[in-house]
Amino acid sequence: MHWRSTARYGELMVRREEQRWQDRAVVILDSPAEAPMPEPGPSSSFEFAVSAAASIGVHLARSGLDGHC
To answer: In the predicted model, what is the mean pLDDT of the chain?
Structure first.
C-alpha cells in the first residue's frame, strides 16, 4: 500500500515499482532422444539446424540482445 497516495486520493492505492526491461533471447536447439543419429556431412538436416541456430544467435547479438545458448 502506498499510504501517501491513499491519503491524497481517498482510496486505497498500491505502489508498483517499475522494473527495468532487459532485452534477452534464448536460442534452443532440441533433438529428440529417440531420433536416429544424424546423417554425416555439411548438407545434413542436423548441421543445417545448428547453422541456423548459430546464425540466429549472431543476429541477436549484433542487435544488442543479451543472448543465452
So the answer is: 79
Quote the Cα angle for 33-36-42, to 5°: 110
Residue 12 is classified by DSSP as: -
**Could you tell me how far CA 34 lies from the centroid of its own chain?**
27
What residue has cell string 549472431? 58
Q: Say what the pLDDT of residue 68 is.
A: 58
Q: 22 versus 25: which is more confidently predicted?
A: 25
Mapped onto helix, strand or coil, the DSSP state of residue 24 is strand
For range 37-66, the mean pLDDT: 82
What are the backbone angles phi and psi of residue 47, rounded to the nearest 5°?
Answer: -60, -40
How far is Cα 3 from Cα 26, in angstroms, rounded to an integer? Answer: 40
